[in-house]
Automatic annotation (TrEMBL):
Protein name per Swiss-Prot or TrEMBL: SAM-dependent methyltransferase
Keywords tagged on the record: Methyltransferase, Transferase
GO molecular function: S-adenosylmethionine-dependent methyltransferase activity
Domain (Methyltransferase type): residue spans on this chain: 42-143
One of the GO biological process terms: methylation
Gene3D superfamilies: Vaccinia Virus protein VP39 (3.40.50.150)
Annotated InterPro entries: Methyltransf_11, Methyltransf_Superfamily, SAM-dependent_MTases_sf
Length: 274
């Protein structure tokens, strides 16, 4: 996993969510809507902690973990700068596949918004989700992010030189067969895994979770540019809020999931059937 750590040591993940605010807004809306009123949350694969900080503002207790030590340090520093450090139970550089630091049934709810992007074997994905299941209390809510194979196919077709080796039909064919993407160019987003949308809910349910919903994190508006957003802002607060309400509503439309690069699974810990 060192190549993943190396990538995130140089990538501005905090800035990505600033540059792509729709994903953050949609995810946070659904997370807050489905969380208990209070409790101790695990943010597993938290990156620089943007979601954690928003939830800390809402007075949840947070334990934050990420694979990349630098991002954990950024999150801790941000918490101090924003006077939210006391809401955190700890900041840890940990692998999502091994959460033995925490006991069984420990957290009231959990976010896992990154680890499954970079676990390329079925065994590793099962380990991460099994550990998530173990540390969450019975009936605890989980919020798990996935990347869509359908959307990445579209990205590859639109910008082939940006996503080598998906700049050739052979490269795309191999990707569609496996869901695995390893960038040909050094320093680019790599070591990734993309799910078939129809496999997400069965995967989570086989690992002990009951599905509440699967939403598209960029809803129908992921391709809108700044000029287009500015148009609706100029229409005034009332119309802009109404547009955002429709964007949030459409994020739950199952027929639109394929247009979203990121998907958010919302489920609850139940009893494993296998």
């Amino acid at each position: 996993m060192q190549h993943i750590i190396d990538y995130y040591n140089h990538f501005d993940e905090w800035g990505r969510l600033d540059r792509e605010p729709l994903e953050f807004m949609v995810n946070l809306h659904h997370i807050v809507k489905n969380l208990p009123e209070n409790g101790h949350l695990l943010d597993n694969g938290a990156g620089p902690g943007k979601y954690s900080l928003e939830l800390a503002r809402r007075e949840y207790k947070i334990t934050l973990i990420d694979l990349t030590p630098r991002l954990v340090e950024v999150a801790e520093q941000k918490a101090k700068e924003l006077n939210l450090w006391n809401q955190f139970e700890g900041f840890y550089a940990l692998d999502a596949r091994d959460l033995t630091r925490f006991p069984d049934d420990h957290f009231d709810a959990a976010l896992m918004l990154g680890p499954l992007y970079h676990l390329q074997t079925a065994e590793d994905r099962a380990k991460a989700v099994s550990e998530l299941y173990r540390v969450v209390k019975p009936n605890g809510m989980v919020f798990v992010a996935f990347m869509s194979k359908s959307r990445f196919l579209l990205n590859s077709l639109l910008h082939p030189e940006h996503w080598k080796p998906n700049h050739t039909a052979h490269g795309i064919e191999k990707f569609m067969e496996s869901g695995i993407f390893n960038h040909s160019d050094p320093g680019r987003f790599t070591g990734a895994y993309y799910f078939d949308i129809q496999e997400i809910e069965p995967f989570m349910e086989a690992n002990g979770f009951s599905t509440l919903k699967l939403i598209g994190s960029s809803s129908i508006a992921g391709s809108m540019n700044q000029e287009q957003w500015d148009y609706w802002r100029r229409r005034g607060d009332f119309e802009y809020r109404r547009i955002l309400e429709w964007v949030l509503k459409e994020s739950e439309n199952p027929y639109m999931l394929g247009v979203s690069s990121h998907l958010l699974y919302i489920g609850q810990k139940t009893r494993k059937t296998g």
